[in-house]
Design goal:
alpha+beta, Ribosomal Protein S5, domain 2, four-stranded antiparallel sheet, 4 helices, 8 strands
Length: about 160
């Protein structure tokens, strides 16, 4: 559960409150989902958000307990920078980014949240940054190249 928002509607008899809950779900093995639930009661909103987050699960490329390379992503006004860290560093992150990274299963990373502090946009920027990660093996396979193979000869420029 990342964030609960209470909104009020003014009616003749007073105020009617409703709640929205931003929920992040992960299996701590590289899958993560984000959901928003709205209801008249907090517990119902959290339950709806949890169901929505389980339906929107995405896979993330991880390298052990950290990420394979730097990632920077912006969503609306929120910007998030993620950097891999050596084992034992831990999660150096703010509240929202930390919750997202913990639920995906990352143990060591350095992060910085810039711009907007809106929890929904920070969470979406973090997930977008995680989605942009690629492992060396996956990139090499997509390009049809082997890692650590013989290097091609450098092109020789013609003498003038």
């Amino acid at each position: 559960m990342l964030f609960i928002n209470r909104s009020a509607k003014v009616v003749k008899g007073g105020r009617r409150f409703s709640f929205s809950a931003l929920v992040v779900t992960g299996d701590r093995k590289g899958r993560i989902g984000l959901g928003l639930g709205k209801a008249a009661e907090v517990s119902e909103a959290i339950k709806k958000g949890g169901e929505a987050s389980k339906q929107n699960m995405l896979s993330v490329s991880l390298s052990g307990g950290t990420i394979p390379h730097d990632a920077y992503c912006a969503f609306d006004g929120a910007k998030v920078l993620l950097r891999p860290a050596s084992p034992g560093t831990g999660l150096i992150a703010g509240k929202t980014v930390r919750a997202v990274l913990e639920s995906v299963g990352i143990k060591d990373v350095l992060s910085k949240s810039l711009g907007s502090k809106n929890a929904a946009n920070v969470a979406k920027a973090t997930i977008a940054a995680l989605q942009s990660l690629r492992l060396r093996e996956d990139v090499a396979k997509r390009r049809g190249v082997t890692i650590g193979g013989p290097k091609a000869a450098a092109p020789v420029s013609p003498a003038v």
